[in-house]
Amino acid sequence: MQKVFLTIFLIPSLLVCASNLFDENQPLVAVGSCMERIEIKNSHTPVDLFKSSAKCIEEEKYPQAVELYLVATAYGYFDSARVVDKSTRQSLDTLKTEIFGPLDATKRNQFAEALRARLDDMKSSCNFLEKLGKPTYYPKYLVENGVTRGDGLILNYDAKALWDDTRFEYLKCP
Fold first, then answer.
1. How open is the CA angle 159-24-86, to the nearest 5 degrees?
2. Residue 66 belongs to domain spanning
3. Which residues pair with 83 in a beta bridge?
């Protein structure tokens, strides 16, 4: 009887769980958490990072929120430059509005002040981004909003040059 139970109920449920194990777009941390800097990986998408940043803002952990936000915007810029359908670039702004819009206005203003202060001295964030490296995930969040065929990425894009452009031109890293 136990073997029948295992075969019918337990094994199929384990297979369903295992099928999502390697999905690149599954969040690597609980979306409801405010990630520490050491938890940030180059496999986190801007969606994950913005949600974590918003949680930090709710918890009034503004330096952490800023760090997550900067990585998310850098990765979003990189992603929007590597997808074929350039109309998806507006998706990042829509994403920010959806995630940060509902937050308390006072907390959003305090976050904005912390962000402005960090933008005046980007050395620490730029060093962190250099060590973190370019994104390793597939930008499903952008591609699924586009109208292109195939995998949605520019064929043979130069990831190193694009990552350098993201850091030095977009973020103005020293």
1. 50
2. 41-170
3. 153
Strand pairing partners for 137?
A: none
**pLDDT at residue 145, as a whole number:** 65
Amino acid present at 32: G
Cβ pair 111, 60 in contact under 8 A: no
CA torsion, points 143, 147, 148, 151, in degrees to nearest 10?
30
Bridge partners (DSSP) of residue 153 are 83
The answer as to whether 5 is a domain residue is no
Q: Is 32 domain-assigned? A: no
pLDDT, block means (10 residues), the chain with 174 residues: 39 35 43 88 96 98 97 95 82 92 96 94 94 94 69 86 95 91
**Residue 135 belongs to a domain:** yes
In a domain, 70, yes or no: yes
> How many domains would you assign to the chain?
1
pTM, 2 dp: 0.79
SS3 153: strand
Map tokens 């974590």 to a residue. Answer: 52
